[in-house]
Design brief:
The chain is mostly beta strands. Helix content is about 0%, strand content about 45%.
Length: about 130
């Protein structure tokens, strides 16, 4: 059974930084992309950042480009989202997601991700 677990959320002031981590277990295949999505209060869940299996391709939403950095360590089955210069509009529940084996490139469509974590809250105070 595949499990995805996020950690690292919390409360931070505007301009601050947070580092989110995601660990995935139970995978029996390789070559899967991973991504972070987020859902702000009263809004739909949206794509934030994604990374390919070999870390050769990253994809970012315009709203986080230049401030967030996604990385992964396949040996540890982890993906990290480093968030800098945080803004109040970054306040959301952040979800880690994984595509199926063989889908090695990140995409923005939520429906392309098969495995999801429970989410971790990030709150940015003004």
């Amino acid at each position: 059974q595949v499990q995805v677990v996020e950690s690292g959320g919390g409360l931070v002031q505007t301009g601050g930084s947070l580092r989110l981590s995601c660990t995935i277990s139970g995978r029996t295949s390789n070559n899967w992309a991973m991504a972070w999505f987020r859902q702000a209060p009263g809004k739909e869940r949206e794509f934030g950042a994604g990374i390919s299996w070999g870390s050769t391709m990253t994809l970012y939403a315009d709203s986080v480009k230049g401030r967030f950095t996604i990385s992964r360590d396949n040996a540890k089955n982890t993906v990290v989202l480093q968030m800098n210069n945080l803004k109040p509009e970054d306040t959301a529940v952040y979800y880690c997601a994984s595509r199926r084996g063989g889908d090695r490139l990140p995409v923005k469509e939520q429906s392309e991700y098969a495995f999801w974590g429970q989410g971790t809250q990030v709150t940015v105070s003004s």
